[in-house]
Amino acid sequence: MATACVQEALPPPLDSTSEPPPLFDGTTRLYINYSCPFAQRVWIARNYKGVQDKIKLVPIDLQNRPAWYKEKVYPENKVPSLEHNNKVIGESLDLLKYIDNHFDGPALYPNDPAKREFGEKLLHDNNFLGEVFSSFKGEDTVKIVGAPLNRLETALSKFDDGPFFLGEFSLVDIAYVPFIERFQIFLQDVWKYDLTEDRPKLAKWIEEMNKIEAYTQTRKFNPKELVEHYKKRFLPQQ
Q: What is the pLDDT of residues 125-162, one digit of tens each?
């Protein structure tokens, strides 16, 4: 399986005091935040395609956003967004497919119609994230979170030609991994719950994902800060 192994010096985040880059000058820019799981999706795809030299990272400080980002780049004022061919597009799942279709490198979606159909189902399982996040707010988190995690275990059993959701590595794996890694940390820290317990397919999937450098290069969030952020967001405050 091909992976992109280019090492790059990551630029510092731009904040309200930062000047904008020379917008719409022909440079392709991916606006991200190093801690945002939605942005991480697209960052992984960029790295895996091996187009670091074609798509420049522009990190944004979401706690102190530059006004020009909303005014001149992306009116939705969130990340990720991609500046390409004199336009800016957003939404992480759309950007995964856009980068796969518009840039050279290993394909991120198989041609097999059955795999594509299943991939679309997984990509648009709008309940998964909502169910997991909702479980963090309840009194029986471990029991409630089991259902969506069990669906992943079942999904990983669909194809037997590899350890990934579609057998082979694809943008479906990219879409899920930023969230699974965060859920794993939070569940372990607060409830001492290992989400891979009794889920051998999920455990193997995480093991194989950790071998993909295009992904591991993007793990730049601080786990302690993540846990504190999730605690404030989901748990009752004393």
A: 879 999 999 999 988 999 999 999 999 999 999 999 99
Strand bridging mode 29-32 / 56-59 = parallel
The SS3 assignment for 88 reads: strand
3 state DSSP class of 115: helix
What residues have CB less than 8 Å from 77, skipping those under 6 apart?
Answer: 65, 69, 70
Q: Cα dist. 43→36, 114, 130 in Å?
A: 10, 27, 23
CA separation for the pair 235, 222 (Å, rounded): 19
* pTM for the predicted model, two decimal places: 0.95
> What is the three-state SS of 157-211?
CCCCCCCECEEECCHHHHHHHHHHHHHHHHHHHHHCCCCCCCCHHHHHHHHHHCC
Q: Please say if the pLDDT value at position 170 is more than 60.
A: yes
Q: Closest by alpha carbon to 117, among 159, 148, 151?
A: 159
| pLDDT tens-digit readout, 15-25 | 999 999 999 99
